[in-house]
Amino acid sequence: MTDRSSLLQQLPAALAKLQRFALVAALVAVIVFFAVFAPGFARPGNLADVLLNNFALLAIASLGMTLAVSLGAVDLSLGTSVDVASLVFVLLCAHHTNLLLAALGGLAAAALTGALNAVLVARIGIAPFLATLGTLFIGQTVQQLATDGGQPVYLLNVALPPLFSALAHGTFAGVPVPLWIVAVLALAPHVALGHSVFGRQVAALGAQPGVARYSGLPVPAIVSATFIASALLYGVVGLLLSSTVKAYVPQAGNGYLMNAIGATFIGTTLSPARRPGVAGTLLGVLLLSLVANGLLLIGWNFYWQQVATGVVILAVLAISFAQRGARFA
Fold first, then answer.
1. Domain annotation for the chain: domains and CATH numbers
2. In sequence order, what DSSP letters do the residues of 80-112 get, joined into one string?
3. How far is CA 246 from CA 76, 94, 149, 168, 239, in A?
4. d(CA 1, CA 121)
5. Beta strand pairing status for 171-172 and 153-154?
6. Is the pLDDT of residue 320 over 90?
7. What's 157's DSSP letter?
8. For 206-231, what is each residue's pLDDT tens digit?
9. What is the H or E stretch that residue 302 is in?
């Protein structure tokens, strides 16, 4: 009887630990499930393709979203930053501009979208959701005006330096270049959010914006730095996407938006305070990438894949937040 009582007393702690690591448990469950039911899923070649084709670009986009969510915002202009960076980069390459200058031009265009968000939020006082939505519409219109109504811009007949293709298809020390870029770019947000004064200021502004404003924090500077940094990360996605397909594809960036939001919020389940973090976000991206690949191998069409992805996101969040919700019941 005593042993049974002891087990019952330990049960809440065990459930709490399960909820804390719901993301890790979901990853293990997904891997085991698809290894059994999806032909070829566990092959090293397939897993390498997942990391390169499903994971890398979404991971970089999600790092930018992690910065925005840490600030208490959801950046709907992600796709606009990706697309304008891709468009400017491709147009400059088409005019035989030096590759480095073309890349800097693309990143500068992305940074402008972040600066616009910063002005709308920090200076004018528009809510981040509405401000980034406005930037999304403005960016789409600019792209349509610059490309005769939204026509793709191809580089198939343009002489490009080898480095252009190496951005997306090259390797270094046997590892694809995009994965190196993910590793390097993940380091800066990890240090900034978790080990710097700036990170503590962002967290304070995201958790209690009213208190942060009255405590003397330089709110406009924090908001501006965060939105511009996020936009630059999205811009890198635009450059890599252009290198992958040798073209600017209208509205391609919007394809990363919902999964980046989902991966970022899934990643918050690793934090006791439910704060966004780089490690959690990358695990969230990996989970969504594996689910997409496994469902494709099983033979599900795109629409059912989206349904399943939504179910996975909700399931991880529901398990993780169940105990927290019970405390407020």
1. 22-29+47-318 (1.10.3470)
2. HHHHHHHHHHHHHHHTT--HHHHHHHHHHHHHH
3. 26, 10, 20, 10, 10
4. 61
5. unpaired
6. no
7. T
8. 887 777 677 778 889 999 999 999 99
9. helix 302-327
